[in-house]
Amino acid sequence: MIARFLLVFLGGGIGSVVRYLLGYLFSYKNLNAIYSTLVANIVSCIVIAFILAHNHLPKQLTHNQIFWTIGFCGGLSTFSTFSWQNWQLIQTQQWSLLSFNIAANLLLTILAIIIGLKLAS
Predict the structure, then answer these.
(1) 31 with 92: CB under 8 angstroms?
(2) Within-domain flag for 69
(3) Which residues span the domain enclosing 75?
(4) CA-wise closest residue to 48 among 15, 6, 19
(5) Residue 105 lies inside a defined structural domain of this protein
(6) pLDDT tens per residue across span 65-84
(7) From the CB of residue 95, how many other CB atoms can be counted at a distance below 10 Å?
(8) How many structural domains is the chain composed of?
């Protein structure tokens, strides 16, 4: 049991650092923060689909699956950031960017799941 908590902790830490680096990279390039969130969500969806491709709803996750899906993807994916950024776009009445952000995150993350499944097969 302790090993599982440690795997979540380590994977989550790595995922969080990757998320931070994406934000830094996008801000360094003077790009809107929504793009780093989109990339983080896409990468997370590819990874989770790739890892779980052969075990759709396993009764018990393996250590590898725990590290990557709960840990890494949990630290990397950014639904709360996505929601906050959308709220900020609403507050500033940036309707076009809001629409793009919602549609891109929804459609591209579903596409990322498909890509992850194809990579796994």
Answers:
(1) no
(2) yes
(3) 9-120
(4) 15
(5) yes
(6) 999 999 999 999 989 889 99
(7) 10
(8) 1
